[in-house]
Amino acid sequence: MIRKGIFDDAAAIAEIFNYYVQTSTVIFSNTLLSADDMKQKLAPIVGQFPFYVWEEDGKVLGYCYAHKFHPDPVYAETWELTAYLDKNATGKGIGTKLLRFLIEQCRLAGAHTLVTFVTGGNEPCERMMTSLGFVQTGIIRQSGHKFNQYLDDVIYQLLL
Fold this sequence. Notes:
By secondary structure, the chain is α+β, with helices and mostly antiparallel strands. The chain has a single domain, classed as Aminopeptidase. It is about 30% helix and about 35% strand. It has helices at about 10-25, 35-40, 95-110, 125-130, and strands at about 1-5, 50-55, 60-70, 80-85, 115-120, 135-145, 150-160. The chain has a 7-stranded mixed beta sheet with strand order 1-2-3-4-5-7-6, sandwiched between helices. The mean pLDDT is about 95.
């Protein structure tokens, strides 16, 4: 079930995040986060932007949130989306349900444009974003370097 995310979810969210940091290129980071680190990362989001988790039997299986795309006020209605699932929750439609819900909450909260960055070659994520109405608007070539390879950032955008 989807529920609002809270600071107490930080440990579970950090666990999901850290799995991808260690095993995948879907997160452009090599830095593992503690629960306290994750709380700091979530501080500008909680209470200001839509932030939700998918929970089953008391366990957080995924999370998603919107946040500022850019600090300048001219971008105030452009929000960036972030969403990740527990490794055992993928392929079950949870990500799509979370993102559909998040998109609607962003619309209700006054966002005009949503953007997200997908690692080039992440075809399941690219298909999901397209199925949700996002359009690929650009590619930042070789913008990240992880696991001894250069990676592209593919930009997806949805006008609400």
